[in-house]
Design goal:
9 helices
Amino acid sequence: MKHDHSPENNPLATTRDIFTIANAMSVCGAALAWKGAEATETPKGAAMLIAGRGLDALDGRVARATSQTSNFGALVDAGLDKIATAKIIYEFTKKDIMPREITAALIGLQATNALATTITMLKHPGKSIRPTTSGKLAMAGEMASIFAYGIGAAAEQSGHKTIATVSRTVGGLAFARFMPHAHTCGKLHNNHLKRFGIFRNALYYRQL
């Protein structure tokens, strides 16, 4: 009897795909980022946020190093990343830590990325949903921007206004730098690109 091993008939995950070091890192990273986002204006909260996002950045590399890569792992990573980022955006917006132009763009990026991933999974079951090189660069820029604004909030709360100003400027520049990569990997709408110059200018004025 011939068995059909096409991607459509393969299970999304096996026990081996679920219980991995990389998945554990993804879960811990999301939990740290969640808790850190709630207290970003404190040094401890900022440290937790940075540690959480750092684990998220390393889980893929660990999965490859331990030969534990799978589409399920990529889905866990992407899903938890979206949840953690949504929490960060919510807290940063509520506390006015990040310019609203950037938070609006991040919401658009996360939404389009999630939609693209969902469509890929539905139309092409079994196809890799791991990010492209441009996608990785875009996420690195996004992470650097979040880090910088988080550090800026903690620095201002501690009375270090110069460090706060420098950190926010770095955050704005990091965000502006990663936008072209987000466009390359197809995760931006055309109206985001048209507003790119507005975002960049608003960032500088916001830091003054």
